[in-house]
Amino acid sequence: MAASSTLGQTQRYAAGALLALALRQAQTHQTVLLGSHGLNDEQPHPDPASAVEPDARDLWTHESRGLLRPVLRFLEIDPKAWAGVEKTAASSDPKHHIGAFLRKVVEDEDDDEKARSERSDQELALAKAVDAMAMGLESSIVESAAEALKPGSCGPDDDPASTRAKDYRKMAVLYMLLSACVADVNMAEEGMGSPRVTKGYDARHRVALRLLATWLDVKWNKMEAVEIMVACSAMAAAKEEEQSRENSSPSSRWENWKRGGIIGAAALTGGTLMAISGGLAAPAIAAGFTALVPTLHTLVPVIGASGFAAIATAAGHTAGSVAVAASFGAAGAGLTGTKMAKRIGNVKEFEFKTIGENHNQGRLAVGIFVSGFAFTEEDYSKPWEGWKTNLERYVLQWESKHVIAVSTAIQDWLASRVALELIREGAMQTVLSGIISAFAWPATLVSAAEFIDSKWTMAIDRSDKAAKMLADVLLKGLQGSRPVTLVGFSLGARVVFKCLQELAHMGNNEGIVERAVLIGAPVSVKGEMWEPARKMVAGRFVNVYSTNDWILGITFRASLLTQGLAGIQAVDVPGVENVDVTELVFGHSSYLSLVQQILDHLELNSYYPVFYPCTPRTK
């Protein structure tokens, strides 16, 4: 049995096969959008196998991609079985295999009662730690989180013992797979040199784990709790490696990583603890881990009782984000330490700022939010502050002078007598209906467009340059090799889209961005690299639009004479999820106050896209 796992040989094989199937399915859903084929469609739902690219090397499960084989090696699966796992994932319908592999991972293998009991104790300890951490993520009620970790506590439900045991096994599987994905260890074949160790958490791995958690019926907030534990573990390993680099070989470092056990270094150890608690209920989690010290010390002797007890006095630090990012390959002070990664053109402002006093520092996934319509500098952060997410949160403040100038010009014109008259006459709806077909604008509308156009053209130019700078930041890994979620509205959505285009142009950057959301995007439907941009996003790619947003149609058409606009219509590109928020948005400036509601509606933590009408919030 693997030293770092409670799982038996067959269970580890099944876990690796499930990850392979999830990787393949996630890649398929980049082009075959879930839910896009109704029950009454004449065309049957395409077989995932039929969506295989001509060149098998493009598959995420191909040996050249480095996504699957390091995980299989970490799980200590016989290399002779790797090709079979890859072939099954690439060429078979997953529904024929998922059920069988799921049964294998939750069933006990035929071993003695003592071994089963020890494994059960380990998995119970992990499940309790995950429950407490998840409760901390969801609530500030510290007592409930502490209660979940008390010895003898069986959790909030009254499920039979056998059901609970299977749930504990599921957490063990997910913890093990995440550790394997993060470790990303390519051990050399025996007799062929030292192992090569690379750090990182690939966005494609996270999307696959999100799908796998869905198959296992595990709530995503529990997986986020596991990520926090692994983040701590990675920091502990990095600290230990730094201290012992001169006196240890690569193979011994590999053994140090593995022997962390099922709990890993979840609480960190030896006085070097940097608890990634952030907004968690830190006292509750500390109390829970302290209560479990005797059990954990027995299960994971390498950590020691003092190491687990250390969490009782530790809390989140702003240094947590820098420490985790550094553990995953970031140089310097991370995102907030770099105001200008690479100056492009005349861009004078490009800076990452944390959102609120606590930006969830130290998480294994990062969110970068980009505003593109603002009247003050505070408007760059305000739209995102109320959105509850467990991402490490940053807002990109870029060229506020130009963004504020064009936003103010639009608002001033809307308040003018001419605009009010045009609105009364319904001229604006004529503009929207003519965005796709030729039409003649009223003279007063042409003059309005010209009034806004110079400022809009400048802002468009700066947004495209800021996008290249954002791509440069991501390519340099200033966020650490962690999955990134990009969300932007108005000109900020254009920054996000053009950043994805730049990543596609540079090539081989598919593992950086996990999710992308464009809200009210001034991006042409035609003439843009939508398909390559889509491939840069491992998970969901959402285009949010409003058919009422006529001011976007006026300004963008006057500037670039485009035909078709993502901010006011659906984008017919495979794998792009279109969400109509017309019932919410009555003008472009509405996005300033509606971003949180829109993001809540999208349910981004769900693997499967949400397709239900977006209606105004009732008071």
TrEMBL record:
SUPFAM superfamilies noted in UniProt: alpha/beta-Hydrolases
Topology within the bilayer: Multi-pass membrane protein
InterPro entries: AB_hydrolase_fold, DUF726
GO cellular component: membrane
Main location: membrane
Keywords (A to Z) from UniProt: Membrane, Transmembrane, Transmembrane helix
Location of the protein in the cell: Membrane
Family, as annotated: Belongs to the TMCO4 family.
Name of the protein in its database record: Transmembrane and coiled-coil domain-containing protein 4
Gene: LOC101770533
